[in-house]
Design goal:
- There is one protein chain.
- Helix content is about 55%, strand content about 5%.
- It starts with a strand and ends in a 14-residue tail after the last helix.
- It has about 230 residues and is an alpha+beta fold.
- The longest helix is centred in the middle third of the chain and has 21 residues.
- The chain has a 4-stranded mixed sheet.
Length: about 230
């Protein structure tokens, strides 16, 4: 059985991608949560994850003697090992496009990530309004996401980016969380897609667990002094 090492569900956007992908695909796995205390080299988190992965970050997928420590690599491995789950679109061109948008998410949207860290439990519309007013780079990131999602949904007919659920939807699930938490202004079609993603069984289960954590980590909370 797969073993997936993750961080706090309320905060760890990278962990969310792999966990949701496994859960939504109904692939059996054991999840091991390594709660964040800090990211200093001598922190309990870094000491624990360092025993699993040389990269020292989550998520990490372990399958027998194999350790995989990158979200795209995890997605590719799961898709290759379980082709029956159809985690990528079957069409070659669509599969290439799905990989392209996932890679863009993997390396891009730094302004949105930095200004609006994932915080599922919080409701921060006032912060979102200030971010939207004061940070043009965030507006540019969101505009690109809206353009991307709108084109994919129109081409596929929905309900997900490539019709059926795929790696791409798991990959953008944390963005859906950010849009909801900070209530950034997006068109109705995008709001509807966010709602559909949040209603997916795998995503809904992650949200439920995140709300049950009751952790407050000041280094993950730039906008609040307490929960």
């Amino acid at each position: 059985m797969f073993k997936l090492y993750i961080g706090n569900k309320n905060y760890s956007s990278w962990s969310m991608r792999s966990w949701v992908l496994l859960r939504q695909a109904q692939l059996p796995f054991d999840a091991v949560m390594l709660r964040f205390d800090s990211f200093d080299p001598d922190s309990a988190f870094k000491q624990s994850i360092g025993q699993v992965s040389p990269a020292g970050r989550v998520p990490v997928l372990v399958d027998g003697d194999l350790t995989i420590w990158d979200t795209l690599a995890i997605a590719e491995y799961l898709a290759e090992k379980h082709p029956e789950k159809k985690l990528w679109p079957a069409d070659t061109a669509l599969r290439a496009r799905a990989r392209s948008v996932c890679a863009e998410m993997h390396s891009g949207f730094a302004a949105l990530r930095g200004a609006c860290p994932m915080n599922i439990e919080a409701a921060l519309p006032d912060i979102g309004a200030l971010v939207w007013r004061d940070k043009p780079a965030v507006r540019a990131d969101v505009e690109r996401i809206v353009e991307m999602w709108s084109g994919l949904l129109q081409a596929s007919g929905g309900p997900m980016l490539f019709g059926d659920f795929s790696v791409a939807d798991a990959y953008f699930a944390p963005v859906c969380m950010r849009l909801a938490t900070y209530q950034l202004p997006v068109p109705a079609t995008i709001t509807a897609y966010v709602a559909r993603v949040r209603a997916l069984p795998g995503v809904a289960a992650w949200i439920k667990d995140a709300l049950a954590e009751h952790d407050f980590l000041d280094f993950e909370e730039p906008y609040r002094l307490k929960r």
